[in-house]
Amino acid sequence: MDKVLQIINMVPAGKVVSYGQVALMAGTPRGARFVGGVLCFRGDNTPWWRVINNAGRISTTCLDHTATTQKEKLRAEGVEVSEKLKIDIERFRWRPEPDALKKLELDEEYTQQIMEKYFF
DNA sequence: GCTATGACAAGGA
DNA sequence: CTCCTTGCCATAG
Hints:
Strand content: under 5%
Oligomer: single chain
Structural class: mainly alpha
Distance between the termini: 27 Å
Number of strands: 2
Strand order of the largest sheet: 1-2
Mean pLDDT: 89
């Protein structure tokens, strides 16, 4: 799943993406769960703090990357995070550009889904 | 190939 | 909106 890391590395500062979104872009629509695992292992070279769940909530349990740390990181980049680790995801969601999607060599059906789900 | 596990997602209370 | 339950998938052993 180096694709996952590749995707996350594309996320600009001040924006966030959901695990589900990343998973979908990686070609594994329901492999969202594993995305987090990758971040814990390779989080050192990846902006893991820009990844949250679809409910706009931080749900990390990784001891090296605590929720508090993530909150600080996001705020430092301009993302508003409430004390309850709640984020207005629709306002800060990163909407991948067609050019970015092209790099991933995604199937048409996936790109379509991404557009319909997150681009409206 | 089968089982267990996980930084999730969606739906109901 | 928050909490709980169920379902899914990819990876490790």
